[in-house]
């Protein structure tokens, strides 16, 4: 019975014959490997497909990763150095866990979710604008190239965006950051021209025009020549006077010049002395700037060496030492006197007299009566305070209360000569005795106090005895009539007791011959005598 064979069966038979013939041509080991191979390897491994032992070790799966490393040396290096994506993975992880082969020539050796891939595990973490979803993986990782071979330099992706046209090199990150091109992190302070003061606020293009960043001039006048008010007269080194903080703030140290600025000069604006921006050969004499003030105040009488008297702290502060530099030391009130009060003429030509009346003749209230030696009584402290010693320089020493009395109480006029010294001349109104005790007050009173009188009647020629003691202090009983100078009173009994004489003068006026002072009624016996002795 004839057998009918279709086209399909014929094709299958032919293929089997061809395959069998091919296998017969291979070694027995290779024939066995091909028989168990699950499928074709990827294009990159195709040349190894005939030698399974290049990637596999029989009955030892753990050895497979080591075999991978033998071929993929760059990955092997990453693993050893703990760098790159593979170097940061768990060391126990095997290659086959992520990479599988034998899925065909066009298959992908590794399947992973790009959306979940952690780029921070690589040597190029994504930051700033790189994290934007609009940035696609394919923008950096080109087809046909390994992911690890993707370039990391900025210009590899942004060369077209480089406004500097490559003039500043390829290290964009030295100035720019991932967040935005406009955010600059360039540290100008690390260059030869640190940005200080106002320079920090200046836009880059103000100094770096045409995107020229190299060999930019650093001298001030390269940018500020138009602003130079000195018109180049002071040279190009503006920094010797000005600072970056502000043009108006000057750091020029005038103290290092031949004319240090002291006192009030520190507050003077530069242009007051340096008119027309003239800073060289500026005169240093006082009258060069202060001539008008000098003429107004002294009218040129004191010369041009203002510093011999004045200080830079204040015109009113005088340093001229009259005590050391003249024969006339200034004491007391003289220190407060204005120079022009005495120096009415030229200071260096006029010779001033040193006597008081040369200046104070009009002030002499004594009208010359006391001579011209005012200093014998007065001092420079004040005219009203005198040094006149009344005890040594007059015939009337001042004692007790007299020391407290103002001069004018006794000296009604400035004429001091011829003044009376008796008490009555000053104290007539104070005499409560109405002259009944005479005018020589000092007989009873002293200068210490009017009330502290020390008159002792017993020391006179009429001692107070008996009843007379009872009238002690009642002076007017006996002293009833006013008198001049010393007290002169009669001592005879009848001068006071005439009306009391019961004898009507029969026994004379010497009552004491019979009567005892203790009592009128007490009589001395045996002393009667009708004759007056």
Automatic annotation (TrEMBL):
Record-linked Gene3D superfamilies: Cytochrome C3 (3.90.10.10)
Gene Ontology MF terms: oxidoreductase activity
Q: Which domain of life is it from?
A: Bacteria
Asked whether the keyword Cell membrane is assigned, the reply is no
**This protein's record includes keyword Signal:** yes
Recite the UniProt keywords alphabetically. Answer: Signal
| PANTHER family, A to Z | DISSIMILATORY SULFITE REDUCTASE SIRA (PTHR35038), SURFACE LOCALIZED DECAHEME CYTOCHROME C LIPOPROTEIN (PTHR35038:SF6)
Q: What is this protein called?
A: Cytochrome c family protein
**Biological source species:** Sideroxydans lithotrophicus (strain ES-1)
